[in-house]
Amino acid sequence: MNRRILVLATVAVAIAAFAIGGLAYTRMTPPAEPVAAAVSEASGLERWHSPVIGPMNAPVTIVEFFDPSCEACRAFYPIVKQIMDRHPGQVRLVMRYAPIHQGSDEAVRIIEAARKQGLFLPVLEALLAGQPAWAVHGAPNLQQAWMIAATAGLDVGKAQADAKGEDIAALLAQDIADMATFAVNQTPTFFVNGQELVEFGPQQLADAVAAALPSAD
Q: How far, in Å, CA of 201 to CA of 89, rounded?
């Protein structure tokens, strides 16, 4: 986590601006609910079940291994959106789950159950905004996470039943298996067009995306 901690320090402003900035972004660019990844699974980086935000034919694909309890993932969320907004129609985000922290597997189940209700993004953003309250490492408060999800419009009763489904269990198992395949042991871990972002940081991610864009020539 060391490099993540360093990055956290550099993106502290982004964290502070998350709530306000997120609302502003929502007003400027209404988010579309993610769709399933209609992609080749040959590499294993993308799976059919993976939430995808952005156009399916975008020339640049960011694959993010993501933990909803992770502070750095929370910090990077608005940064990734800003990068996508900077290159409209050119970048898509494939989200893979990496439930490293205690309780993150249930948080993933909340997000996936919300997805079944067409509330993936509202619930994801509510959980990220409320992360300091529910995602205390070593003592996560999942009941509070469910309550926060409810504020985003989630039908909690239905979602709690859906969250126990074998389909979500299988999705989680696949993503965890792929974490091992790609040696993902910290979050967020990014791949840009299949290449892992080795030098980690907001600028490095932005530069990797810019470099992967098709030439204007």
A: 23
Q: How far is CA 28 from CA 20, 22, 60, 128, in A?
A: 13, 10, 22, 20
pLDDT in tens, 96-111: 999 999 999 999 999 9
Each residue's pLDDT tens digit, 115-171: 999 999 999 999 999 999 999 988 999 999 999 999 999 999 999 999 999 999 999
Tell me how far apart the alpha carbons of residues 67 and 64 are, in angstroms, rounded to a whole number: 10
Give the strands of the sheet with 189-192, arranged side by side: 35-36, 51-53, 91-97, 60-66, 189-192, 195-196
Are the C-beta atoms of residues 192 and 209 closer than 8 Å to each other? Answer: yes
Q: How many residues does the chain have?
A: 217
Chain centre distance of CA 32: 14
Q: What element of type H or E holds 83?
A: helix 71-86
- 15-25 core/surface letters (b: 16 or more CB in 10 A; e: else): beebeebbeeb
CA distances from 101 to 14, 89, 133, 137, 140 (A): 22, 33, 15, 7, 9
